[in-house]
Amino acid sequence: MPRPSVRGKLLETALEQFQAQGFNGCGVQDITNAAGVPKGSFYNHFASKEALALEVLEQYSQGSRPDLLTDETVPPIDRLRAHFAFLSDRLEGWHFAKGCLLANFGGEIADTNPAVREAMAAFFERWVSAVGVVLRQAQVQGEIDARHDPDQLARFLVYAWEGAVIGAKVMKSRGPLDDFFAVSFDRLLARPA
């Protein structure tokens, strides 16, 4: 098995450090120590901690299994539930200690770091758009009420999810996630009567 590159180690370790300690809670030295690489090698790969954070955000977006939303062999609402269930299982696997990188960065540095804020905004826009596509398909197939504005509903679901993630991290419990599923899927997205 090939050894991971220094760059790969730094990205992987930075994600772990940012999720566990936040952007401001860890420095370049903490990241390089945890990765087991010399601090000087960091600057061979990244111009700054901000540049690293931007790449970590991009990598993080790839790990959220966007394919779950686009698999049209699965009914739309089932796809949407599977997407959020995957995210929920990942959080539970982390024992609710890490939370969502977007929520963590959003609360910590969105006001002080314009480049990271813009990257997060773009991430949210892509996510909301993907959820909106699924909701439109669900409306066409009669799975949800056609009176819903799919874009508004998509924004609500994504941001309600982020709030539930923060609640789960604070409570160290999946209770807020269960509430998200109950309200979102059993009530709001229930098949019209």
From TrEMBL:
InterPro entries per the UniProt record, alphabetical: Homeodomain-like_sf (IPR009057), HTH_TetR (IPR001647), Tet_transcr_reg_TetR-rel_C_sf (IPR036271), TetR_C (IPR011075)
DNA-binding region(s) in UniProt: 27-46
Domain HTH tetR-type positions: 4-64
Keyword entries, A-Z: DNA-binding, Transcription, Transcription regulation
Cross-referenced PROSITE patterns: HTH_TETR_2
Coiled-coil portions: none
GO molecular function, a single term: DNA binding
Protein name: TetR family transcriptional regulator
Source organism (scientific name): Aliidongia dinghuensis
